[in-house]
Known about the structure:
Strand order of the largest sheet: 1-2
Radius of gyration: 12 Å
Mean pLDDT: 94
Helix content: 40-55%
Distance between the termini: 30 Å
Strand content: 5-15%
Low-confidence stretches: none
Structural class: mainly alpha
Oligomer: single chain
Number of strands: 2
Largest sheet: 2 strands, antiparallel
Amino acid sequence: ARWQALRQRQLLAEPLCQRCLSYEIVTAGLHVDHVVPHKGDGVLFFDGGNLQTLCLSCHTYKTNEERKGTYLDFRKS
């Protein structure tokens, strides 16, 4: 329930994919992503400042990059 509320707040605050927006493409974001992987850390998991909204393809891309050890932050500076 706590995650669902945080996820909903994120999607209401930023409904568009942050990576697509960085390329000036408007795409609905359906995935709430942890910028820094939480790896089971509850504090990091529920840190609203560690979230970004992504579409499915951008979330998949970011996940694949994380497997290579690259962490991508697409939030506006």
